[in-house]
Amino acid sequence: MAANELKEVESLRKSLEESLTKLIQKVGKVSIGKRVQFPFGWRKAAKGRTVWRIIEELITQNLEVHHNEFGISKVTASDSEVSVYDMKCEFDGHSPLYINIKSAVLGGKRTKDDISKAEGLINFYNEDPNHIFMIATFLIKFNKDMSIELTKAVVMPIAWIPDLYVNPSNNGNLQSSYAKDLNKAKKRTNATFIEELKKEIQVAEGKKKKKK
């Protein structure tokens, strides 16, 4: 059963990555301004969080409108600002995919990035332990002409993140430094992931109590 689950997840992971690659090719460069308007270029603004809200909107809107063009049968954006996922995608004949969209600057430093609220993820899997949850990371390039480009999309099943860590001092967020490094993926089943996540939550709670 575990082998079948992993096979299904890998198949959907590849399909989603292929679809997002088609989206990247379609949207091309996104102009943020003119070079004459920014005499010093990007400077400190060359960070993913600077433009992320715009990029997130670009991705979700194009997926909702052009999903058939990308080989996806249905796309539904989350209707909640506090949901653990950003959208739900469906491929014909497969279980739905719940997707969290992230960004990373091309060539940027490796950091421990927030994935989602750990307790929220536990509640999410309590609803259905068979949910398939993917982290889709888009690599962003900042160009000298004040445009940005999405250069690549990397899809990692959340259950496969190798370095699970729940930050006790950051609202209990699940964090990872390797959510976009497929070569480091730890291919867990949902059941194994849920158990390991619960242990990490307990460790974080223990650290929090010690600080108090």
Task: Summarize the structure in short.
This protein has 212 residues and is an alpha+beta fold. It has helices at 2-27, 48-66, 118-127, 190-211, and strands at 30-31, 74-77, 87-90, 97-105, 113-117, 132-142, 147-157, 165-166, 173-176.
Give the tags:
212 residues; alpha+beta; 6-stranded mixed β-sheet
Characterise the protein shown here:
This protein is of the alpha+beta class and 212 residues long. 36% of the residues lie in helices and 25% in strands. The protein contains four helices and nine strands. The strands form two sheets. A six-stranded mixed β-sheet has the order 1-7-6-4-3-2. The termini are far apart.
How is the topology of this model organized?
Layout: H1 2-27, E1 30-31, H2 48-66, E2 74-77, E3 87-90, E4 97-105, E5 113-117, H3 118-127, E6 132-142, E7 147-157, E8 165-166, E9 173-176, H4 190-211
Parallel strand pairs: 4-6
Antiparallel strand pairs: 1-7, 2-3, 3-4, 5-9, 6-7, 8-9
Helix content: 25-40%
Shape: globular
How many helices? Answer: 4
Indicate the mean pLDDT.
Answer: 92
The biggest sheet, with number of strands, parallel, antiparallel or mixed sense and barrel status, is: 6 strands, mixed
Distance between the termini: 44 Å
Report the uncertain regions: none
Strand content: 15-25%
Tell me the Rg in angstroms: 18 Å
> Which H/E pattern describes the elements?
HEHEEEEHEEEEH
Count of distinct strands: 9
Arrangement of strands in the largest sheet: 1-7-6-4-3-2
By secondary-structure content and strand pairing, the structural class works out as alpha+beta
